[in-house]
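*** Backbone structure tokens ***
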Amino acid sequence: MEQRSQKKGSIVDLRVLKALELAKDLLKAKSTINILEVGCNSGTFLTSLKHALVNEGYSNRFSLQGIDIDKAAIQSSTDSQINLHHSSAEEFLKVTKVKYDLIFTL
């Protein structure tokens, strides 16, 4: 069963809370951060993290991207503002020039 927590009037996945904590620590030292989720499916986790970061006042200070080998999942993205890529991790690393501050996977 997925664990959840009450935070500022909304229910947030504990994985998102931990990611938010890590992102906030990085944002103390950096003006912006890049976050990647490997195996992102349709981007549900990234969407939740985006909302949590925005709610904490970090709008425009982060970039979210996800990769997944399931093309159908990528095509059914939960948020059109998050960049999801149909790719394996190995292939993605060959073409990306972005340096990621946080990388998540299940």
In short: Helices lie at 14-29, 44-55, 71-75, 89-95. DSSP finds four helices and six strands in the chain. The CA atoms of residues 18 and 82 lie 20 Å apart. The longest strand covers residues 62-68.
